[in-house]
Automatic annotation (TrEMBL):
Organism of this sequence: Lentzea indica
PANTHER family assigned: CARBOHYDRATE DIACID REGULATOR, DNA-BINDING TRANSCRIPTIONAL ACTIVATOR ADER
InterPro entries hit by this protein: CdaR-like_regulators, Homeodomain-like_sf, PucR_C-HTH_dom, PucR_C-HTH_sf
Domain PucR C-terminal helix-turn-helix positions: 24-82
Native organism taxonomy: Bacteria, Bacillati, Actinomycetota, Actinomycetes, Pseudonocardiales
Protein name, UniProt field: PucR family transcriptional regulator
Length: 94
């Protein structure tokens, strides 16, 4: 999927608002690392689970992908990879 430049660019653009906000990025990365386990992700971040839930809702609002959905979590994970991958062209900002 990431070998398709138009797909990779779209995913990188989608995740950009999350990447720009460190607490949201940290929450999403922890959630992904803990395979969608909210309690474990909150422990990893040393925050209350309701704080994590709030941040995940903000991720959904910014991306249109609900992190608690397995399919959407996979999409968000791939979007993070697209955003950070040097071989994937990043969106041009004007």
């Amino acid at each position: 999927m990431l070998r398709q430049p138009h797909v990779a660019e779209r995913l990188a653009r989608m995740i950009e608002p999350v990447v720009a906000q460190q607490p949201l990025l940290d929450a999403l990365r922890a959630f992904i690392s803990e395979d969608g386990n909210r309690a474990a992700a909150a422990r990893r971040l040393d925050i209350h689970r309701s704080t994590l839930d709030h941040r995940l809702r903000l991720v959904e609002r910014l991306t249109g992908c609900r992190p608690t959905s397995p399919r959407a979590l996979l999409t968000l994970s791939v979007a993070l990879t697209a955003h950070s991958s040097p071989q994937v062209p990043l969106p041009h900002t004007h």
